[in-house]
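Quick illustration, no need to memorize.
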Amino acid sequence: MNPSSRDPSSGARPAPADVRITSRTRSRIPTERGGFTLVLYETDYDADQHMALILGEIGDGEDVLVRVHSECFTGDVLGSLRCDCGRQLEQALSLVAAEGRGVVVYLRQEGRGIGLLEKLRAYNLQDEGLDTVDANLALGHGADERDYTMAAVLLRDLGVRSVRLLTNNPAKMESLAAHGFAVRERVPLGPFVNAENAGYLATKARRMRHILPMSDGAGGAGEADGVGGTDGVDGTSAVDGAGRVSKNDGIDGTGGVSRGDESRPREG
């Protein structure tokens, strides 16, 4: 596939098995958290160089702790308080290091897929009163244009078969399950709330299905600080391939729930 010929808006997404992938190099990355290995990939799916940061041995590929992280220059590099991306990346790296085995996939899809320039323009619209979804729409973009096909491609190349996914976003779980991965567990991150990003996080919970429980002072999920899921699920919930939120369950990669039977229709 010619990367320049792929139309992201066409909806045509090749299966990971159809994507040609090349591991260009791998390097040792010592950090304060531990020693990682960084693998840089090129594919014929797009023109970007996606990466995987690995710690420990993948082994049989089962139940690997995985973070699928989309590039955020402002949050990951500058430490911007407008989002929680940088803090999520830091926590994911710490959790993988503590586990002694895991993968952080770093996808080059800045600004939920619209690029840095358009993300900054969306920031300006947010400063004028639009929320993060409406700002994207006002610029002619979708609310979220990210594509997780490359995450599946990289994880398959690394020998990962099933994952414990570090995420608050059901869409990532659904995508990996659709690509044949068993999502055994959702491991929540944060939430990292401050005065600058409280409205942004609330919008993600309300309009983008992100699971962001906040303490209401009584030990439950509430709307304190403007953040809280609207579907009432807790921090161990998962979403199966049939589009249901299921407490304490994972996705078996064939659209079924791997364990447990408590489920209900997903809202929104």
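The radius of gyration is 18 Å.
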